[in-house]
Automatic annotation (TrEMBL):
Pfam families in UniProt: Thymidylate_kin (PF02223)
Catalyses which reaction(s): dTMP + ATP = dTDP + ADP
Gene that specifies this protein: tmk
GO biological process: dTDP biosynthetic process; dTTP biosynthetic process; dUDP biosynthetic process
Keywords: ATP-binding, Kinase, Nucleotide biosynthesis, Nucleotide-binding, Transferase
An MF annotation (GO) of this entry: dTMP kinase activity
Name assigned to this protein: Thymidylate kinase
Organism: Niallia taxi
Family: Belongs to the thymidylate kinase family.
InterPro entries registered for this protein in UniProt: P-loop_NTPase, Thymidylate_kin-like_dom, Thymidylate_kin_CS, Thymidylate_kinase
GO cellular component assignments: cytosol
Function description: Phosphorylation of dTMP to form dTDP in both de novo and salvage pathways of dTTP synthesis.
Length: 210
């Protein structure tokens, strides 16, 4: 039975999810809160292997539905092996991306359909949905400029998509917000890191203190 709190971070490329996740993790560790950080696709051995297959820039022939199924498979294993056990132990789980990435990227930007992608993901995740999702909103040009400037960020197959794909990703997230307005908390990610961090903390503390 779930006792912990499941929080996910979403947004287009370079929006600052990983930066803020690390800051939140350090903050809650210092406060003595039991917290687990993880990411998708990945987080555990099998899902990291699936990540390598999906994001390899050489795999240009990958079909959109194959891509969607691989993300869902990685998600399933990650949930069963890492997220659900941590929630059962009462931890706060912070995940860099989850199902909303599939809805925005494969469902909307790839044009497979948000409802189609929702159906295959329902099979993968069952009842497990985040308690809160922080959505970092940033224009794709600005996000791509950030990752191109960054030295320690490898450029993957999805980064190499055209700008119009990344623009559809952002529109896809807006559709996801319309679908789940209670769960998604939108944060303006063009602000400085400290402001983004403070607003993220406030949203999470509201859930932790409930
Ligand atoms: N608020 C911010 N203002 C300016 N630069 C930022 C901000 N947040 C993060 N950055 C920088 O932008 C780059 C991308 O940040 P980060 O890796 O956290 O983004 P991300 O959303 O996890 O990206 P992706 O999902 O594409 O891996 C890094 O170089 C980071 O230092
Ligand atoms: C979970 C998930 C991710 N993606 C995409 C989004 C990014 O382009 C990469 C992951 O790279 P990151 O540096 O870790 O953000 O994968 C996706 O298209 N669908 C998904 O479900």
């Amino acid at each position: 039975m779930k006792k912990g709190i499941f929080i996910t971070m979403e947004g287009p490329e370079g929006a600052g999810k990983t930066t803020i996740l690390e800051m939140l993790y350090e903050h809650y560790i210092e406060k003595g809160i039991k917290i687990v950080k993880t990411r998708e696709p990945g987080g555990i051995r099998i899902s990291e292997k699936i990540r390598e297959i999906i994001l390899n820039p050489d795999h240009t022939e990958m079909d959109g539905r194959t891509e969607a199924l691989l993300y869902a498979a990685a998600r399933r294993q990650h949930l069963v092996e890492k997220v659900i056990p941590a929630l059962e132990e009462g931890a706060v789980v912070l995940s860099d991306r989850f199902i909303d990435s599939s809805l925005a990227y494969q469902g909307y930007a790839r044009g497979i359909g948000i409802e189609e992608i929702w159906k295959i993901n329902e099979f993968a995740i069952g009842e497990v949905m985040p308690d809160l999702t922080l959505y970092f909103d940033l224009d794709p040009e600005a996000g791509l400029a950030r990752i191109n400037k960054s030295n320690n960020r490898e450029i993957n197959r999805l980064d190499l998509e055209q700008l119009d794909f990344h623009q559809r990703v952002q529109e896809g997230y807006y559709k996801v917000i319309d679908k789940f307005p209670e769960r998604l908390h939108k944060i303006e990610a063009s602000q400085g890191v400290e402001d983004v961090f403070e607003q993220s903390l406030r949203a999470i503390d509201a859930i932790l203190n409930r």
